[in-house]
Amino acid sequence: MPELAVTMTQKAEGIIMLGIFKKALVATASIAVVALSTSAWAGPTLDRIMSEKKLVVGVAPWNKFVLLNPKTNQYEGLIVDDIRNLEAMTGIKVELVNTTWSGLVAGLQAGKWDVIMSGLGATPERATAVAFGEAFGYLSSTAMVRADSPVRSLADLDKDGNTVSVVSGTAAHQFAQRTFKKAKVSSLSDTGAAVLEVMQGRATAYVGDSVSNELRAQERPTELRNVKFASNETEWTSMNHAVRYSDLDLLTFLDTYIRSMKLRGWYRTLADKWNLPPELATGPH
Fold it and tell me: Which residues belong to any copy of the Solute-binding protein family 3/N-terminal domain (predicted)?
């Protein structure tokens, strides 16, 4: 009987200890889940954006994409429409800060804005400085020359004595540096100055994105002509948002929006609205 009593007591104690262990395990798991969900929710930047319902965005002038209308003093264009749609869907107010193309990355790193939303092309070179998100548009590189220019191809352009103007820091700038072996590449701070170099004869061509060059050539058919390179000579680039690497959670938030809008055909709708080529939304394929 004493041995039986001891056995029963040990079993009872074991059951009690098992119950305590299970409760402790559940409590520990609950704490871990809370900690995980809290840390996964947001870093300082996204937490502030969600709390204040305000996102500060750096943009650079780009006709039909991001441009300040002097008559209304309001920004307009494809990217602006997309930003306003993001505002409407999330309740987050977006403040646009205007800068130059060459100042976009520096301003982001300095904390002047939370994200770059000017359609900055994602490249391995730029990825050493900023983190790029999901592509929402696609462009190729072309050359814009004077209407009376003999240049018809990349081979015509890449010759000694020719000068190619580009906007500093753009994908076209990087393309020109990699591509032209004989022609001189001259970088300027803004598009207007780079195009003016061609119109006034100081540059043989301005190399930029396919959409902007085509629009300029259509606007000034007697002065300018858009030269498209062969498919194996040009480069396609994507249009992306960019954040600091410390704000990857913000990028996840923005990418979720972009993927959703792609599935709805939103970017093709915007391309049609702004009279832009459909491949802007679909890419080279």
Answer: 54-278
